Amino acid sequence: MTFVTQRDGQPLFRTTHWSLVGRAVEEGDASLETLCQQYWQPVYAMVRREGHDIETAKDLTQGFFAKLLQNDWLKVADQEKGRFRTFLMTLLRRYLVDEWRKETAAKRGGRNEVLHLDEKFINQLEVTHLPPDAVFDRHWALALLETALAHLEKETGPDFSLLKDCLTAQRGETDYAELGQKLSLQEGAVRVAVHRLRKRYRLIIRQEIARTVGKEDEVQDEMEILMQALS
Amino acid sequence: MNSDKACRRCETEISSQNTGGLCPHCLMARNFDSQTMPTGENSSPVPPLSPEELAQFFPHFEILECLGRGGMGAVYKARQKALDRIVALKVLAGEWQGDPHFAERFEQEAKILAQLSHANIVTIHDFGEAGGLYYIVMEYVDGVNLRDLLRDGKMKPEQALAIVPPVCEALEYAHEKGIVHRDVKPENLLFDQEGRVKIADFGIASLMGVSGEDAGTPLYMAPEQERERVDRRTDVYALGVVFYEMLTGERPAKDLVSPSQKVEVDVRIDEMVLRALAKEPQRRYQTAEEFGTVVKTVIATRVDEQKITEKEKENFYSKESQLYKITAAFAFFFGVISGLIPMLFYWLRPWAAPWLTDRALNVLLEVSGVAAVLAILLGFFAKKRLWGLYGFVVGAISLAIWLSFFFAGKLSQSVREERKLGQNNFFMYSKLP
Q1: Is B146 domain-assigned?
Q2: Which CATH number belongs to the domain containing residue B198 in this structure?
Q3: Which of A206, B74, B109, B220 could cross-link B48 (Cys pair, CB 3.0–4.6 Å)?
Q4: What is the pLDDT of residues B400-427, one digit of tens each?
Q5: pLDDT tier at B242 (50, 70, 90 boundaries)?
Q6: Which has more confidence, A216 or A9?
């Protein structure tokens, strides 16, 4: 357990997903499923980008995670070697090649569904011309933001829907007086609430990223890569 | 990728299925916002202890997190186990090392500070020394500081004005006890969740025994502070800087530009700010109380003025306003008089009213001119009402015609006749029999 104090004063590296991976190897921990559930979208998006149709892509995604959860792959996972994102992408590439080889021989389907794949996402996904890596990274970044926002919403409660626009608002764009009326709060109190929300958001993002990289100094770097992926 | 719309800020596509309708690009970009300290404030070169490291020195506290650090030390959020309350624990930086009298002075000063009990001052609960670390236990304010709020840009004058009086009251309270803050700045003005302001770090500067440049933050420092002549007016100056920053979003430059040149504020606010920021202490507000009172007066009169002008306007332009209605009616009436009646008489006289004498006609024309002028004046006054506007327009047309007649010498036949006789009087009609 690493304990690094960040400016905001909260430890970044409480349990990284990497250490979670390590624990999964030892105990067959169910929480690895949580992690997979969080990052299945980039996997699915990349599979689709590789040219598979929806049904096949769903099968392959389930197959990939089933193998990930059962297989010895995780023993290879070496925290020192890099980030979970790149590790997962490499595994997926290898997996897709293997699957393609035995595509005709083995019958897919009938596999256990290890994850719940959200139909809304599957149906709305548009396959683009972007390189598969970029697709993977973009959806990784989106999944990360989604997780962070869900986390933030849970913490904030019902006011979140009104406050969330302030997260991306720039200087002077927010009418605090109006927002105050909607929330029945004083203007000063709204400013305080918004500030706290932003601060909390930053911290959650950093913590979330910290869980998927090997070293602390990689957080900023990973964040820049994900930023790039979203442009 | 799912793209229904582009972000209006960065123009990248917004994916509708994720991120709650917010632009993912902007969301991610938010993480790169710098949270650097304002210029002039340097963080302590020695990194603060981690909560774990600190815990060994403070068995009675559960150290929760490090809230931040400044030149004077680091502040931690902690739970006081015995009372089960959350407190802020300030551990002083090591500048005191090598000062043999520090312990004594620390105790003296802290005792004085602990006597401060004011709703707008962060209360000091306890102080002491543990394992060679000097610490102060303070009330924990669950909120943000003014610096955080100012990151969002300047404030409305009303908000900025509202913050000053409670700060002045708190400063006055402390000044009366002979305590000068010496380091008033946005970082030290805290707001709790209800938006109430509280001054933090009272007198820590003098407690630390630092002087000159080391005490206070250069940008908020009164000129005399460099020469170590510190009194209550020093705090007035610093608060003036804070006030200026709240209004304009900027700190005052060397050549002071009055706030009204940067933002829309009334002149009295300019006066207040410039007076608080006077270089010579004797030209400033002499007490925080005086400053606060002036600000309060401005707040009160601003509100009154707004109410009065709004009410006046409302009354004046309201449909109930009789004066306004009557004025408009008169304007229209004079407009009609000026335009219609004299002309009618003038043109119709040969047929309809041969009995009208030249003198009567000229008087009518004179009346027309006066009526035209009245219609214009009254119509302008009551231009917001339709009848008033009609009066104004008709009056203007009549006056134009009247003038053209007059100067073309077509005022009346008799005028022409009199001209022929060589009489050249401007008000010729008066000569008529």
Answers
A1: yes
A2: 1.10.510.10
A3: B74
A4: 877 876 666 555 555 555 555 544 444 4
A5: very high
A6: A216
B51 touching chain A per CB within 8 A: yes
Residues of B in contact with A126 (CB under 8 A): 1-3
Q: Which residues 178-197 of B have a C-beta within 8 angstroms of A?
A: 191-196
Angle subtended at Cα B344 by Cα B341 and Cα B345, rounded to the nearest 5 degrees: 90
Residue A79 has pLDDT above 90, yes or no: no
Is there a single domain that holds both residue B155 and residue B297?
yes
Minimal CA separation from B291 to chain A, in Å: 22
Residue B403 belongs to some domain of the structure:
yes
Active site residue B183: yes
A80, with CB counted inside 10 A (0-12, 13-18, 19+), is exposed
Looking at the structure, tell me whether residues B295 and B354 fall in a common domain.
no
Tell me which residue in B7, B20, B194 faces A164 most closely, judged by beta carbons.
B20
Q: In 3-state terms, what secondary structure has residue A184?
A: coil
CB B153 within 8 A of CB B115: no
Same domain, B369 and B254: no
* B36 → chain A, closest CA residue: A7
Spatial separation of the C-alpha atoms in residues B330 and B322, rounded to whole Å: 12
In a domain, A5, yes or no: no
B381 and B304 in a single domain? The answer is no
Please give the residue range of the domain that contains residue A189.
17-230
Q: What's the pLDDT tens digit per position in B22-57?
A: 788 788 877 765 443 333 333 334 556 778 878 888
Q: Give the per-residue pLDDT at B420.
A: 54
Domains of chain A: total:
1
B290 and B384 part of one domain: no
Residue A3 domain flag: no
Q: Is residue B41 in some structural domain?
A: no
Q: What pLDDT, on a 0 to 100 scale, did the predictor assign at position A13?
A: 42
**What is the ipTM metric for this complex?**
0.71
Residues B125, B188: one domain? yes
The pLDDT of residue B72 = 67
Nearest to B28 among A165, A174, A226 (CB): A226
First to last CA, chain A: 34
Contacts of A138 in chain B (CB under 8 A): 1
Q: Residue B16: its chain A contacts at CB < 8 A?
A: 124
Same domain, residue pair B344 and B288:
no
Which residues in A lie closer than 8 A to residue B31 (C-beta atoms)? Answer: 202, 205-206, 223, 227
Encode pLDDT of B134-174 as tens digits.
888 999 988 888 888 887 777 888 888 889 999 999 999 99
B29 to chain A, closest Cα gap in Å: 7
Nearest CA in chain B to A227: B28
Candidates B33, B84, B148, B183; catalytic one:
B183
| Residue A6 located in a structural domain | no
The answer to whether residues B358 and B307 belong to one domain is no
* Domain edge (last residue) among B279, B312, B345: B312
CB contact under 8 Å between B17 and A138, yes or no, is no
B312, B343, B373 - which closes a domain:
B312
C-alpha distance from B42 to closest chain A C-alpha (Å): 14
Inform me whether the C-beta atom of residue B50 falls under 8 Å from chain A C-beta atoms: yes
Question: What pLDDT is attached to residue A138?
Answer: 87
Q: Are B409 and B415 in contact (CB under 8 A)?
A: yes
**Cβ contact B24–A3 (<8 Å):** no
What tens digit of pLDDT does each residue of A147-180 get?
Answer: 888 888 888 888 888 888 888 776 667 777 788 8
